[in-house]
TrEMBL record:
Listed PROSITE patterns: AMP_BINDING (PS00455)
Residue ranges the record marks as coiled coil: none
Residues annotated as domain AMP-dependent synthetase/ligase: 25-460
InterPro entries to which the protein is assigned, alphabetical: AMP-binding_CS, AMP-dep_synth/lig_dom, ANL_N_sf
Keywords: ATP-binding, Nucleotide-binding
GO cellular component: membrane
Species of the source: Arcticibacter pallidicorallinus
GO molecular function, one term: ATP binding
Protein name: Long-chain acyl-CoA synthetase
Length: 637
């Protein structure tokens, strides 16, 4: 397994680990089997990947063929991906939450030849569309006792269990080994590694073409930016590997640096898994951090009395200590002693809930509210924020470990350029690189544009759409508005999200929504106001807070009425909206709102798989209710 070249393809990263970082019997993957965590070595991973490659070659899969995955995070995902990558095939991961129509579209658009399927529920989805997908030759259930689900199924594609596939591949592996090695060596960095379909907030899915170089260079550049990641680190993986953020931030970075990956059992069991595995690094979305923040505040202050006083004192002490350290000053003996006491009495108990070994969280996928980032900073828990899109592999910028500017998404990654372009005049205000970093730089706002190793090859079968986002100078236009602040990139919002009220004032929904999300009563909020006189909103209350405040049973949330009409609930939420409105300009404040009984969801078609609100869908679906907000009396004059 010797590998002497600098790794420049996805499969060469893992081979590089066993030739220069860890022995092949070192643990790479961990997953929960029964009551204990099972460890899987690099050797077992590579041997299994070779068997999968052997089977693929037996069935005629060749370089450039597209193979599908609709599979939860697990060792099976890694085995399958490595098996297809090293013979030059292309990973097409499909979000498990997509509808049957969307899955059918992706299989046909990509020309998927095999698909591995993680659950019985997903298998039923695939069976329903399989005969409408002429390219599909094999369906591979990756769960036990799948046989009872395939009886009396009338489809033209063949079915083989994942375990059987591996056994079949082992039979021909001896004669295929040299061919597998030759295939792996023949992969070019510019070759296609994956198609990742972005649903976006409008339109049909587009297959983002990402090369081996896109992934490998992005992982290497991220590690240059955060050199504290080492071969001894343990990632806990729970975000979907079908999303580019988790694939790069956890999987590819672990393959580059030699880290271990433990797979969480589920979102519901994540808290328990954190305490069991004791990860040192976790990629996460802001919502997880917001929930930890909310629970900690609630637990620390509930009931008042001495316990709440100690908690509030500790947080205030942590804030004083953090601001002194971040200013590059010495905290002094008294503040240092107070901080240690606060850590022992309060912070250590919160840290234990994360396993007690956490080096940092890396947050991406959406904006992290500034107050949540500061809260973790006060506890002494690092949260590094990253920014990027599927089309940028994804990382464009990420917080440096020793330089935190809350409310920003860090310094530009090595090897790429990021510009700020005026939305109207198209004049580029500034172009920044990792090398040109200036901690005093502050630029005007504009669209964020990028070029360099992170930019995709284009959209699959969509030349016109590609030309709309990558201009003749090679700049990819992100559609995000932002600026440089203290040298770091700061995101304001999406261009498509900007609300322009009837007086011509521009309102960016995301920062306004984040202000109101400081309320522990509010779970989700959707701002309305484009071409309107004032701002209104659809508010989804926190179910837990609602039940605590009013004692509602499950029956209350199962009622057919889409909106909650009880006056006491509306007044309860209005109190927090009025309080938080003071932090906003008058034209940004919510003047009226409706309270939605159930959250916006992917299943209802209201959210993308990366949990971004589909603005046009929501505005159309609730048009009558939204119009009522502008005919009823405003609550917040």
């Amino acid at each position: 397994m010797h590998h002497t070249k600098e790794p420049n393809t996805v499969p060469s990263l893992l081979r590089n680990v066993v030739s220069g970082i860890h022995p092949e019997n070192h643990t790479f993957l961990l997953h929960k089997a029964g009551d204990s965590w099972k460890e899987i070595s690099y050797k077992e991973t590579l041997d299994t990947a070779d068997a999968i490659s052997s089977y693929f070659l037996d069935m005629g899969i060749r370089k450039g063929d597209r193979l599908g995955l609709i599979l939860e995070n697990s060792p099976s995902y890694i085995f399958y991906d490595q098996g297809l990558q090293q013979i030059g095939a292309v990973n097409v991961s499909i979000y498990p939450t997509l509808t049957e129509n969307e899955i059918e579209y992706i299989i046909n658009d990509a020309g998927i030849r095999t698909i591995i399927v993680g659950t019985a529920f997903l298998l039923k989805k695939i069976f329903k569309v399989a005969n409408n997908c002429p390219s599909l030759q094999r369906i591979i259930p990756a769960f036990d006792q799948f046989e009872k689900h395939v009886q009396d199924v009338n489809i033209s594609a063949g079915i083989i269990g994942f375990k059987q596939l591996i056994e079949e591949g082992k039979k021909s592996l001896t004669e295929r080994k040299k061919q597998i090695d030759a295939c792996r060596e023949a992969i070019l960095p510019s070759d296609l590694s994956a198609l990742i379909y972005t649903s976006g907030t409008t339109g049909i899915p587009k297959g983002v073409m990402l090369s081996h170089a896109n992934f490998v260079e992005n992982a290497k550049a991220s590690l240059l930016q955060i050199p504290v990641v080492t071969k001894d680190d343990m990632f806990l993986s729970f975000l979907p590997l079908s999303h580019v953020f988790e694939r790069t931030a956890t999987y590819h970075i672990s393959c580059t640096a030699g880290c271990r990956i433990a797979f969480s059992q589920s979102l519901e069991l994540l808290a328990r898994n954190m305490e069991e595995v004791k990860p040192s690094i976790m990629a996460c979305v802001p919502r997880l951090l917001e929930r930890i923040h909310d629970k900690a505040i609630k637990s620390g202050t509930q009931g008042g009395g001495p316990k709440a006083a100690i908690f509030n004192w500790a947080l205030a002490t942590g804030e004083r200590y953090r601001t002194v350290i971040e200013a590059g000053k010495s905290p002094g003996i008294l503040l240092s002693v107070q901080q240690k006491l606060a850590d022992r009495l309060v912070f250590s108990k919160i840290k234990e809930k994360t396993g007690g070994n956490l080096k940092f969280f890396i947050s991406g996928g959406a904006a992290l509210p500034k107050n949540v980032g500061e809260f973790f900073g006060n506890l002494g828990i690092k949260v590094l924020e990253g920014f990027g899109l599927t089309e940028t592999s994804p990382v464009m910028s990420v917080t440096e470990y020793d330089r935190q500017i809350y409310g920003t998404v860090g310094r530009i990654l090595p090897g790429i350029e990021v510009g700020i372009q005026d939305v109207d005049t198209k004049k580029i205000h500034t172009v920044q690189t990792h090398q040109s970093f200036d901690e005093n730089l502050q630029s005007p706002e504009g669209e964020i544009i990028v070029r360099g190793h992170c930019v995709m090859k284009g959209y699959w079968n969509k030349g016109e759409e590609t030309a709309l986002v990558i201009d003749h100078d090679g700049w990819f236009h992100t559609g995000d508005i932002g600026q440089f602040f203290k040298g770091n990139l700061k995101i304001t919002d999406r261009i498509k999200n900007i609300l322009v009220n009837s007086f011509g004032k521009n309102i960016y929904p995301t920062p306004v929504e984040n202000t109101y999300l400081k309320s522990q009563k509010i779970e989700q909020i959707f701002l309305i106001g484009d071409k309107r006189e004032y701002i209104t909103a659809i508010v989804v209350p926190s179910k837990e807070s609602l039940q605590e405040a009013f004692g509602f049973t499950e029956e209350f949330f199962e009622r057919p009425e889409m909106f909650i009409s009880e006056a006491e609930v509306i007044s309860w939420i209005a109190d927090d909206i009025k309080r938080l409105s003071g932090e906003l300009a008058k034209f940004e404040r919510i003047k009226n709102f409706k309270v939605k009984r159930l959250p916006f969801s992917i299943e209802a078609g209201e959210m993308t798989p990366s949990l971004k609100a589909k603005r046009k869908v929501i505005e159309k679906k609730y048009a009558d209710d939204i119009n009522m907000l502008y005919t009823e009396e405003s609550f917040n004059e």
